[in-house]
Amino acid sequence: MSDPSAASRPVQAVVLAGGQGSRLRPYTDDRPKPMVEIPGTGTPIIGHQLSWLADEGVTDVVVSCGHLAEVLQKWLETAELPVSVTTVVEPEPLGRGGGLKYAAAHLPHPDRPWYATNGDIWTRFSLRDMADFHAERDAVATLALARPRLPWGAVQTDGFGRITDFIEAPPSTFEINAGVYVFSPEFAGLLPHRGDHERTTFPHLARERRLAGFTIPQGSYWRAIDTAKDLTEAAKELAALGR
Question: Which residues form the Nucleotidyl transferase domain (predicted)?
Fold first, then answer.
């Protein structure tokens, strides 16, 4: 028996893989950030992402390249990939929103919804559930939300100002943009040709109540790989999870 919600789930995605990755040097001296491997995983970040997208029903992916684009393109050409991949390189710097718009123009199904993910995210959760959440709310865009652990220890106090406990790296009390998205077909037309959509398109949609936030389920793994410390922490966490 077919699932009626399956028709509204994306089968295409954009991976934004053009960042400089300056805070990950020296790992990014000879490769773009998505090509960095978390020790012990045996695969670069983008390899994990493409596998995850394929597991979630995606068949076509547009990878937006930038820094050391030729290194990423060569790997994509020679690796055994579970999805069909097209690479694009911006003709000039277009900003985050412009770059997303440029990449989206190369998706094979412009009249269908699509996923997008930042190229430095290592996570696993149900994109199908996120797509259903997006459709149920008639959203134009849905952001995955994460509650990362703070990099510092926290202090608990009582009402009188006495310290009662120390908590090592507690979860943030705020949710953050986790860098994974579901977009309806019309979203690409709302993006700026140049500039940052997070300062223009997203606030506009929020005012119209057409922007949704999907909280990544508790127990699902999520980490943005920004620094060498993130690599080390991710390796420890994934080893502890047996992944």
Answer: 13-239
Question: Tens digit of pLDDT per residue, the chain (243 long)?
Answer: 446 567 779 999 999 987 766 776 766 667 778 888 887 788 888 999 999 999 999 999 999 987 778 888 998 889 888 999 999 998 888 888 988 999 999 999 999 999 999 988 999 999 999 999 999 999 999 999 998 777 788 899 988 888 999 988 777 778 889 999 999 999 999 999 888 898 899 999 999 999 999 999 988 889 888 787 787 888 888 888 765
pTM of the model: 0.87
Inter-CA distances, 191 with 99, 203, 220, 241, Å: 9, 12, 30, 38
Are residues 12 and 59 in contact, defined by beta-carbon separation less than 8 angstroms?
A: yes
The C-alpha atoms of residue 53 and residue 71 are separated, in whole angstroms, by: 22
Q: Is 142 exposed, middle or buried (0-12, 13-18, 19+ CB in 10 A)?
A: buried
Record the tokens describing residue 17, joined without a space: 């893989």
Non-local CB neighbours of 107 within 8 Å, separated by 6+ positions: 12, 14, 60, 62, 114
Which residues contact residue 126 at a Cβ distance below 8 angstroms, ignoring those fewer than 6 apart?
56, 217
d(CA 27, CA 29): 6
Using alpha carbons, list the distances in angstroms from residue 188 to 58, 88, 102, 104, 201: 19, 16, 9, 7, 10
Residue 8: phi, psi to the nearest 5? -95, 0
**What is the spatial distance between Cα 148 and Cα 234, in angstroms, rounded to a whole number?**
12
